[in-house]
Amino acid sequence: MTLLSGLIQRYDSLTATLAGKVPDGVLLAFVRVVLAGIFWRSGQTKVEEGTWFQVTETTYELFRTEYAGVPLPPEFAALAATAAEHVFPALLVAGLFTRLSALGLLGMTLTIQFFVYPEAWWPVHSLWAALALVLVLRGGGWLSLDALLARGRC
Fold first, then answer.
1. What is the C-alpha separation between 1 and 89, in angstroms, rounded?
2. Beta-strand (E) ranges in 87-144?
3. How far is residue 78's CA from residue 72's CA, in Å, rounded to a whole number?
4. 69-113 pLDDT per residue, tens
């Protein structure tokens, strides 16, 4: 055995050990929280401080001006985006309707990419899309309400 093949073998052994100690569910829960945090913080900037869901006049103005490229009426787009940035992240943290919520946030990401900030694909929107795609394809993992409900149905 050469030195290189010995190192490769040790590396493979180490990664297999680590993969067995960190279950996918833990990693998927982390991805859910990270993606939720990005959009939740954005949603919080769109509502009056101390209110549950009073959209600020600044938000409406933002959708009339800077986000004017979005092909929806600005008032509707402001409400829809603000609602989505609160509902989808809350569902992701709970792991409820994970795939649907991640798909919604992926749609928002692509809307922002194509109609608002087309120069921001790399590194910002590509990372959001990657996080969302992981959840769309893999689901919430075993540490989610989705998994709990699925066990109850079986």
1. 51
2. none
3. 9
4. 999 999 999 999 999 999 999 999 999 999 999 999 999 999 999
Any residues with CB less than 8 A from the CB of 99 and at least 6 apart, and which? 135, 136, 139, 140, 146
Q: What pLDDT digit, counting tens, does each position of 30-48 carry?
A: 999 999 999 999 999 999 9
Say how far apart CA 125 and CA 86 lie, in whole Å.
19
Residues 6+ apart with CB under 8 A from 117: 124, 125
Percentage of residues of the chain with pLDDT beyond 90? 84
> To the nearest 10°, the Cα dihedral for 118, 115, 60, 77?
-140
Distance of CA 117 to the CA centre of its chain: 18
Q: Note whether 29 and 95 are within 8 A (CB).
A: yes
C-alpha to C-alpha distance for 101 and 53, rounded to whole angstroms? 19
Taking the model in full, what pTM does it have?
0.88
Q: How far apart are the C-alpha atoms of 79 and 95, rounded to whole Å?
A: 24
Amino acid, single-letter form, for residue 102? A
Residue 128 CB: number of other CB atoms within 10 A? Answer: 22
